[in-house]
Specification:
This protein is mainly α and 103 residues long. It has 4 helices and no strands. Helix 1 runs antiparallel to helix 2, helix 2 packs antiparallel against helix 3 and helix 3 runs antiparallel to helix 4. 30% of the residues are buried.
């Protein structure tokens, strides 16, 4: 999870230095990989500690991977906004009743 935060922070620094640039391969890896690494790490944490699979987090990782297909056609700032939207959607699903199975 910490590595995902660090990669996301480095991606934010790059995006803010030139927001209108089209994302290259390395930029897209950082912009999408940081949040994906964070979500995967948190899913692994939940699996180890609470013995539960976090489907919203794994779905978020899959959506971020699918965003990678369009990464070179989207400006870096737009790609970062999409990645932030995915993470926000995962956070919203954590608060929705009925998403998590009863204990």
């Amino acid at each position: 999870m910490v590595a995902g935060i660090i990669v996301a922070a480095a991606a934010d620094q790059k995006v803010l230095s030139e927001p209108g640039a089209t994302a290259g391969t390395s930029s897209a890896w950082m912009i999408l990989g940081g949040p994906a690494l964070f979500l995967a790490g948190h899913a692994a944490f939940k699996l180890v500690v609470w013995r539960t699979v976090s489907w919203p987090r794994l779905t978020g990782v899959a959506v971020l991977a699918l965003l990678g297909l369009a990464a070179t056609a989207i400006p870096e700032l737009g790609l970062a906004a999409c990645a932030a939207g995915v993470v926000a959607a995962v956070a919203v699903t954590d608060r929705m009743p009925g998403v998590h199975p009863p204990d």
